[in-house]
């Protein structure tokens, strides 16, 4: 199955009615309809669909209006390929599958990525009606196979390697000539295209998608063969002529039976076995007091939210009724959402303005119930990105749900009537080889002000099957970063642009070396872009090229010192061993805003402090600070919260000074702490209040306290600090004429 990258919201509704959120451990094999245009992408998508065990029930095709002549049938649709449409019927005949067709009657009236309201006369409505016809005729269909897959040089090579024969039937790009390139196969064109890349210094993706040249599959699953065709010239432009082949007559030819051994060699390798479901007993920490209900809790000393202009971070939301034995899990989650909604409303925001949400659950076994309640409020249009993990120590609160979130005023409603770009949402629920589809009511990523990307938590799912792969931490880490990289690439970014990250892991709590190995491995994945090729690495002087950004030693140095934090917890979704949550800069932000990163360490008495930060002066400061005991003899003793808080907040202030950011830009502080290391969370909160207030007038930032099983460097506490001015980021990009 393939993803409709950049597809519309109405399409999403249609597809979701076939394919619900993939919450099962294994993706079910589906009966699917294949959307076909006659081109190579839709044919290759069908091959991939069958390779992964799905059954093709029928084909569906949208064609130009029947009254148009062959020379006028290329309507240059925003969404649908029409060149070569007259070979589709033969394709269905050769596959011995029924064909459902419809005419393209609409045009591109609504061109936003979000399509959630019916727009009469829009071409998306033609697709909706076509799929309605499919479901009426073939009610057993449960999925849609589409060729709108992520374009890449690697994928084109895979098409060639799979012996798929496709010819170019339209040219509309610089360097592609009607008399020279029309009618040639991809295999024949490959060396010429690569020569054009070097000659024109243009990435292959730009060469192949600038006004999108089209293709027709002539040998995939028995083929059609053109008997007669002629060239139609649309525009005799000197630089980039536009022309296509009109196929006048074609017929089917028998193919020699395939060699079974050759077919077997093309099958995808079997996925590594998934790790067995966790059988370890969840460790429940019982410190003297953890948010004791009999006394004021830690939230009394910190504001409910941190705010600067239109940005708002809501911290540590738990049900006010938590601990009530008669309170159902659904009611507890509903109360949490009600609190969030009320707080946002008081500041002129709505639930639709939430861009990212952290969901901490006391028991992952209850996730389905929590998620069912969550989706009622937050799983609809423009959903926030999300990270979800288990925090077993919440059992001592007692609370079953803990939430914090980031919201941007007006970004939800404004996206429907956009005045300017503030927030973009990548929300793909269809299955492909690109990246995992969303397995819950959240989006893959939210992009703020075209500068900052908030990426949803990634676990080691194989995109094609949505199976958890990798038997150990190293294998799962590699898959997590590959998935993250694919999403970032779709947003004009990659792993070398990461400015902050939290890596959640499970395992033995008494193995700090394992956490250090994981941290080192994560830095390697960032520096090497998870061993994935960079499409722009050989291109010079291109606005989209990484050559003058990521490949320079300075930019590699940036990502090698970007703040990362490894946190050990009791359990992750699907019993995964690793979950990766990243924030990254876009290409434009990295290139023009000169971000810097650094790491340093200091010592105060028996404590060692390690600080990392990534900064864009006057605009962004992402900080990670850890504190650990130096002496082995002291590690088993509870720490004095006041001493720890004084040292750790000193590190935070030093980073803010380097970023030239005032205190009011600090929106949120997430405090991960090993519960057994402190007398109580209440004591820790009071110590933080005192450390911030000493000799200063600044307010205490919004804080979320998260009790965990372990932290990198065998630390007892870690702070993740977010300080930013998104309007400043946007202004700087505007000054560089990038908006």
Gyration radius, in Å: 27 Å
Termini Cα gap: 35 Å
CATH class bucket of the largest domain: Alpha Beta
Q: What is the tally of beta strands?
A: 29
Uncertain ranges:
1-25, 203-213, 220-225, 270-296, 538-545
What amount of the residues lies in strands?
A: 15-25%
Can you tell me the CATH architecture of the largest domain? 3-Layer(aba) Sandwich
User: What does the overall shape look like?
Assistant: elongated
Number of domains: 4
The average pLDDT is 80
Q: Share of helix among residues?
A: 25-40%
CATH superfamily of the largest domain: HUPs
The tally of helices reads: 19
Q: Tell me about the biggest sheet? A: 7 strands, mixed
Which fold does the CATH topology of the largest domain refer to?
Answer: Rossmann fold
Strand line-up across the major sheet: 15-16-17-22-20-21-28
How would you characterize the overall build of this protein?
Strands 15-16-17-22-20-21-28 form a seven-stranded mixed sheet. A six-stranded mixed sheet has the order 23-24-25-29-26-27, with helices on both faces. Strands 10-11-14-12-13 form a five-stranded mixed sheet, with helices on one face. It folds into four domains: 9-255, Rossmann fold; 305-413, RutC-like (60s Ribosomal Protein L30, Chain: A), CATH 3.30.1330; 420-592, RutC-like (60s Ribosomal Protein L30, Chain: A, 2-Layer Sandwich); 595-734, RutC-like (60s Ribosomal Protein L30, Chain: A, 2-Layer Sandwich). With 739 residues, the chain is α+β, with helices and mostly antiparallel strands. The protein contains 19 helices and 29 strands. A hairpin with a 4-residue loop joins strand 18 and strand 19 (467-468). Helices cover 29% and strands 24% of the residues. It is elongated and about 85 Å long.
